[in-house]
Amino acid sequence: MPPVEPIAPEALFRRCDPATLPFETTADLPDIDVIVGQDRAVEAVRFAIEMRREGYNLFALGPEGIGKHTVIRQYLASRADDEPVPPDWCYVHNFEQPQRPRAIRLPAGRGVALRDDMGRFATEISVAIPAAFEGDQYRRRKEALEDELKARRDAALSELEVRARTLDVLIVRTPVGVGIAPSKDGEVIGSDEFKKLPEADQRRIATAMKTLEEELEETLRNVPRWEREHRGKVRELDREVTKAAVDHLIAELRARWAELPAVLDHLAAVEADVIENAGELLAAASSSDGDLSAALKAAVGAGDGSVLKRYRVNVLVDHTGSAGAPVVYEDHPTYQNLVGRVEHVSHLGALVTDVTLVQAGALHRANGGYLVLDARDVLLQPFAWDGLKRAIRSREVRIESLGQALSLISTVSLEPEPIPLDLKVALVGDRLLYYLLCEYDPDFLELFKVQADFEEEIDRGHETDMLYARLIGTLARKEGLRPLDPGAVARVIEHAARIAEDAEKVSTHMRSVSDLIREADHWAGDAGKDRLAAEDVQGAIDGRIRRAGRLRERVQEQIRRGTILIDAEGTSVAQVNGLSVMQLGDLAFGFPTRITARVRLGRGDVVDIEREVELGGPIHSKGVLILAGFLGGRFAADRPLTLHASLVFEQSYGGVEGDSASLAELCALLSALSGLPIQQGLAITGSVNQLGAVQPIGAVNEKIEGFFDVCAARGLSGDQGVVIPAGNRKNLMLRRDVVAAVEAGRFRVFAVESADEAIELLTGRQAGRPGEDGSYPADSVNGLVEARLIALAERAREYGQEGDDDGVGVAGE
User: Fold this and answer.
1) Rounded to whole angstroms, how far apart are CA atoms 505 and 500?
2) Do residues 123 and 360 make contact, with C-beta atoms less than 8 angstroms apart?
3) Cα dihedral sign for 609, 610, 613, 619?
4) Per-residue pLDDT tens digits for 287-335
């Protein structure tokens, strides 16, 4: 097997040559008019918008900061500009069912006009009605009706009085009522005098009094009926006067709104109510010391539950001055902020409400357009997700409080008429949330049929570099930042490749790119520059690492001072430098970890000490179990594997997860079996499968740089380096100081494809290939491992056991 050569310095970092960027600064570049690298997502957004069928709402998924909100809102806004403006919606009083306000749909911009017209109408009738009722004509007609009632009552009594006199009886009117008394010569006589009359006269007068008393009672029974008829005539007079006062006002409104039947129906109901409640208006006047005008004007105010207030119009959604369909983003999607609410005011110690206190929600404002929501925010708000689904499914917005919806309260409140809903909803969230909703919410895929999956990275090339340059220039102009020269743009592109962890791609994480440009602009401003150069971008990168690097520096210090034991030179058996990475916030850094192995006679177990003490995660434990499969398949295919091996991350006091250390663990195990020492100047990372092939891992740049920092602090000897999987070559975007050290021959990076190549690098001994008889050369790594395993098997046979963990022995074959 030929020796593995170090990776060439130019392969450790793919530069972006500023000379390939043909502009002086980004100010020379036009704004970008395409969404870079998100063709799939944009196609999904376009499809969701154009698919006018139920359930074809959108869920945009991808990591935070990738620009999902920006892309969707920009695209929706550009699309919405060409769509018609949706109608206005108003709520008005329902005169048949006062608790259920009616919804009226109006052409865009007409809602405010209707509100103003009805406001003027209420003000005008507050003047016109008092004037009509205080006029001489009304007063004369009312007095005539009162005189008519009095005359009718007096005529009936007068007729009785005339008849009574002919029968020697008088009708006596007293303060407490009307009575009948005997008379003589036209004068009332007392009982004593009455008894002195002849018996025939007494009987005649008594009979007459009884007859007249019955007739008087009949007459008095008719008086309430006459009074009711009188009140009816007065009410009819009030209606007639009220109709005459408001008729021309209503006629003007009917003419102005003649093309809208819903408004005409409401005006008819208003007119009927005004006429019907003329007496109530008069009562309001009498309760205000007779000042009818003042009482009616106060009735137009808020919060008093008065008569005229129910003629006002509540403009729920107003599109005056709007252009195109609305695009609404609700950043606090509570239940009521989505579906609307009915507010209350305090009046005389009680909470009251009316149609004017109905408030719109985001669904109302976005009706006829688009609503953008953060999926996580919706799910965190109690009942907001259920309310959103209910509205989408029923295609209407129903305003009700949570207490009403859950039947928790029985307080009488308004129940506004539902408003038809026609809109597209775009949810924005991460991929995990999307797939959890798919799994656990049976309604989700029925309501959100379209997914827009945003790319996290795009292929890198000259065309992409130019698009990226235009994107950077557009961001700088929008933020009011200094333009970037080609060197600064090249450094941003290189950093975007580092974020993507791929030299052949660049990240689409726009928040990171935007933040970097802002910070670079700050440093350029401090230096008094009028444009950003590469050193400004590098200064921003270094500053970010510096600000978040306290723990990184602390770990390096502990290694430097010997608190964490790491050897960066010399050799040692069964000990290897693995590489770990720690993610803290938006900073990831690597550091070496000592991995050791011990072997003895046993039953073929490879024990993961981390797993035994519950510090190892399932993926790490899987990697260790794979090692047992590798050893058994390579060295014990036709004999028992009679060893007990233990592996551990030394000085690890937290959790260990991932399989990127399985190659290092395998090398430590092979060293323990073969007795060959491992060069401590080399650190190794990589995942290995049961066949011994090395598999790529993540965070390779941070891991290399972590070990480089340890070696640089102690002095680079030229024998130090890192071994990585060959599959990670394309991910290399190392720091400039690491590349410079490799160019100077003071540090090396190796890429291996198999465990044999890795162990050869670490031990300096050939791994060895099996001969025709299947055995390995005796002086090779594999030969020494094979010999040790054979010796363990022989020893197990000698002791009559196949390998017990504690050496007690069990029955052999």
Assistant:
1) 7
2) no
3) negative
4) 544 444 444 444 444 434 467 788 899 999 999 988 899 999 999 999 9
